[in-house]
Amino acid sequence: MVRSSRLALNAYELVEEVKSGSISVEDYIASILERIESIDKRINAYITINHHALDEARIMDKMVKSSSSNSNGYRSTLLGVPLAVKDNISTEGIRTTCSSRMLEDYVPVYDATVVKRLKGAGAIVIGKTNMDEFGMGSTTEFSAFGVTHNPWDEERVAGGSSGGSAASLASCMASIALGSDTGGSVRCPASFCSIYGLKPTYGLLSRYGLISYANSLECIGLMARSAVDLALMLNAVVGSDMQNDHTSIDSSIDIKSINSTSLKGMRFAIVREIIESDAIDEPVRDSMLDAIASVEQLDAVVEEVSLPSLRYALASYYTIAMAEASSNLARYDGIRYGYTLQPDGVAWNEFYSTIRSNFGSEVKRRIILGTYVLSSGYYGRYYMKAQKARAIIRDEIMHVLRSYNAIITPTMPVLPPRIGERISDPLRLYTIDICTVIANLAGIPALSIPYSMHNGLPIGIQFMAKHLDEALLLRIAYALEYARGSRVKRCVL
Amino acid sequence: MMQADKVMIGLEIHCQLTALRSKLFCPCPADYRGKEPNVNVCPICLGMPGTLPLLNRKAVEYAVMLALALNCRIASRITFYRKNYFYPDLPKNFQITQYNAYEQASVGADGYMELDDPKGNGVSKVIRIRRLQLEEDPGRLVYDGSIDTSNYALVDYNRAGVALVEIVTEPDFNAPNEVRLFLNRLASILEHLNICNPALDGAVRCDANVSIRGHARVEIKNINSFKDVEKAITFEIARQRSLTARGIEVNSETRHWDDARRITVQARTKEEEEDYRYFPEPDIPSVILSSEDLEVIKASMPELPHARVERFVRAYALTRDTARILVGEKYLADLFEASLKYYDNARSIANWIVTDLKGYLDRYGDGSNGSNNSSSSSSSKSDSNDNSNVNTGILARITPKHIAELAVLVDSGKINRTVAKQIMQKMLSTGMLPSAIIQGMNVDMLSKKDELEGIVDRVMDEERKAVMDAISNEKILNYLLGKVMKYTNGRADPKLVLSMLKERIVDLRSSQ
After folding, report:
1. Taking CB atoms and an 8 Å limit, are A246 and B54 in contact across chains?
2. pLDDT band at B273 (very low <50, low <70, confident <90, very high)
3. Between chains, do B50 and A212 touch, taking CB under 8 Å as contact?
4. Contact A327 B94 (CB under 8 A)
5. Mean pLDDT of A233-256
6. Average pLDDT, rounded, for chain B
7. What's the angle, vertex CA A368, arms to CA A365 and CA A370, rounded to 5?
8. Which residues of A touch B55 (CB under 8 A)?
9. Active-site residue A86, yes or no?
10. What per-residue confidence (pLDDT) applies to B387?
11. What whole-number distance in Å separates Cα of residue A102 and Cα of residue A100?
């Protein structure tokens, strides 16, 4: 067993220790599993644990030993690193539920490309993490497997929909994690849990294996406790996957030069409509202003810009997301997999409605609304208009990003809400996505950086950059991480 | 009065791109026929969570070829849409298809096909094509007997995701026979482009909408066989006419073609207002076709039927009618051209193929499929569609060399046509070459008088009554000729025999 403080190691540090032989992967994974056993009853980050994790760890140790004689050493960049995977990302042989009764016993026959690549780099899947059902939510309260508690304050939500992944990192039940981000689902819980959450450029990571909620908006996202870990992860998962995902792009990201502590020469934009919005809580605004001061101290220039069409962002986002969801979720009919029902003596329509009553309330709400906005006669009024608004928003963002390296916003306009506080009012719940949905609508990369604490509650700051400018975001993260030092904690032990 | 009674028919045709090796959106084999249920499947065509459609670019190319052949405008930006509806044979509960309500997303639109005048030369009619689109086939439901009595439904996803081209015509047909001409021509185009084998069961499926001007429109679905389309439409027109004649209004409804009873039956009393909630498929990027791409596809297209007909007329001096019959079924045209390599007499070769071989096939079928034999039909043209591209049975046995040898034997005077037909029968049933058959037969033509004297005399002797009748009625001579031919196993030169018989009758008449 390893000392519990070691569970807070960054992935890149752990890899060094594993390669040098000072930590065995088996010991480390066993300790992680033990910690899950002892604290996850309270946090509820995991839905399913990978029971082969220890076996895989032993294999890693053998590989380390056999390659130690090799002068090159072992090259796997994530060797032995415990990985948490959101439960809407397919894992071969490990149950993948999307936090839904509909898929409570669904076991995929293949690994998502991103999972396969991380495993190839040496990461070990610890388990599958809790989320809002099918990714629909910002608090992980809409889960058929119970709410995930925020490790910083267990009375509060961990954010969502990738709440389990964020909580697993913040409570040292994994070192790196995968989430998915349709309108902020990686960045929101990252912000609420004081870790990093990267939503990459649309198409940069293959979506193969990510169970669709809103195809044109969503990405697999990366979560970690340090900027370097994020860079290691990104390096391991980028690259063309055209044989599985025709919407993916073939591009590599040059992240060799992220370790600069200065932001000299960079120009950042802050958005007037967000700074002035009364939807932003005071502690969050204060933190945001402090972040602006910090980057200016690192020699960046910050200027104010206007995004007038921002007010259409939420409506546009939810219309498109729900429309796509209503179609994507049609396949859950209990015929081929998932929830089963004896079909004897039941007509098709009745069979469908019985099976599909197993969706949770938020999923039902979005399917119904999505069905409505696609109905003939309403398509032009809603879906088409939403797409037009999306194009306008994207154009405005791209215009700003022609003059600035990045746009700075708070990740979430509020502090982590108490459990149950917002779930009863869906419209109020939707509004907290205002800063994050922009990046999904525009397809640009966005990173939530853990920046500060207010009364023990984390606050994250978001940076958005041009398409494929992930390296720049990582550079900002690295510089801020260095500048903030021990003022920002990224996990609770 | 006649004008008010005008019939309007439109077609919706689904053609599987059977030449593709894989399905439209995944690498599964496209050939599902004769397979165990649910073996040609993968996570993508089963709609497993997390899978994404992977567009088969070859399918787009084939659809573009067909759209060009049907004179369509090709979309510069080809986009796929989702058609959302629940049905157990549809793994994702939406079909990936195309939709033109907002722009031309479909591969082709606004095309046309010219129908040849069946009697004369030239074009008798133009049928407009509204759109031509690419989409995926659903799986198949299998019942225990009929859908009404079955206690269960089984789903076979082998067919799910197979590439289909849907062709929608304007309601420009005014008679069932025009539909037949259209479908035959379409089949020939599909064969010539080598993208779809219409002979395969279910490879080409057709729905029809039929109305009498001023009355409601009726959809006929479930017409499983190509040749039943004409029959179903004929029945439906008669049904609607008998209703309107009695002052009963035709209901707007969907009817099914009942294959066994040869009638259309009501499927739904009221057309449900279906809302498919079309929207662009986010997982498939639009396909941009540049003019260069289009030129490359055009250049790679095989010769189309109408061009082939013109070439046959021009290069081989065939009549347009003969050329059309050959080209109407690609394998006949191919056999014709291949046979010319062995014997360079186009008219003779064409004659053997069009008159004798095709006549035999129309009458007896190809022999590769028992049902062909029993369903001999007056509409020989549509029958023979079932034979096209068949490579079992007779057509597998008959090579260009067979046809060429037969023609050479007759044209060189070695055998007469009667013997040639016997040889053809044997050749079709055994696959032996005519030269080999001849060796086993005593078939050289008896064309010398002294070889025939004895037999002619014998017939005159045996058929006294007929001989007496022949004195007053020359037509009886043919009967006597037949007897001589029979005794000579058809080897006698009929012209010579006839003149010998005539001589003898004239002698008898003058001696009376």
Report:
1. yes
2. low
3. yes
4. yes
5. 89
6. 88
7. 105
8. 246
9. yes
10. 36
11. 5
pTM beyond 0.80: the answer is yes
**Whole-number Å distance between alpha carbons of A315 and A373:** 12
- Inform me whether the pLDDT recorded for B363 exceeds 90: no
pLDDT given at position B268: 58
Q: Which of B43, B52, B93 has its CB closest to that of A110? A: B43
Contacts of B285 in chain A (CB under 8 A): 246-247
Nearest to B225 by CA among B371, B362, B333: B371
Range B349-358 average pLDDT: 91
**Nearest CB neighbour to A327, from listed B82, B87, B275:** B82
At A64 the pLDDT is: 86
Looking up tokens 């500060």, which residue turns up? A452
Inform me whether the pLDDT recorded for B385 exceeds 50: no
- Amino acid at site A242: M
Q: Do B87 and A103 touch (CB under 8 A)?
A: no
Going from N- to C-terminal start, the domains of chain B cover: 11-207+273-293, 303-440, 449-511
What are the distances in angstroms from CA A44 to CA A87, A141, A142? 13, 11, 13
- Interatomic CA distance for residues A377 and A380, integer angstroms: 7
Q: Of the ranges A98-107, A165-174, B366-375, which one carries the lowest mean pLDDT score?
A: B366-375
Confidence of residue B362 (pLDDT cuts 50, 70, 90): confident
Query: Is the model more confident about B348 or about A73?
Result: B348
Q: Is A62 designated active site?
A: no
Average pLDDT, chain A: 94
What are the Cα distances from residue A243, in Å, to A208, B51, B401? 10, 12, 47
Residue type, A180: S
**A-interface mutation test, from B277, B281, B283, B288, most A Cβ less than 10 A away:** B277
pLDDT higher than 60, residue B369: no
Question: Which strands form A446-454's sheet, in the order they lie side by side?
Answer: A46-49, A124-129, A82-86, A176-181, A219-224, A196-199, A446-454, A457-465, A406-410, A267-271, A301-305
Q: Which two tokens stand for residue B239?
A: 């049904």
Beta bridge pairs of residue A453 = A458
How many angstroms separate the CA of residue A354 from the nearest CA in chain B? 14
> Which of A108, A209, A330 is facing B86, going by the closest CB pair?
A330
CATH 1.10.10 fits B449-511, yes or no: yes
Select A1-493's CATH number: 3.40.50.970, 3.90.1300.10, 3.90.79.10, 3.30.300.30.
3.90.1300.10
Most B-contacting residue of A241, A336, A351 (CB-CB within 10 A), to test interface? A336
* A371 neighbourhood in chain B, CB within 8 Å: 277
One-letter amino acid of B329: E
> Active-site residue A119, yes or no?
no
Q: Considering chain B, what percentage of its residues have pLDDT values greater than 70?
A: 92
Q: What is the reported pLDDT for B442?
A: 66
Residue from A185, A194, A287, A448 carrying the catalytic annotation: A185
Q: What is the mean pLDDT of residues B273-300?
A: 93
User: Closest residue of B to A337, CA-based?
Assistant: B48
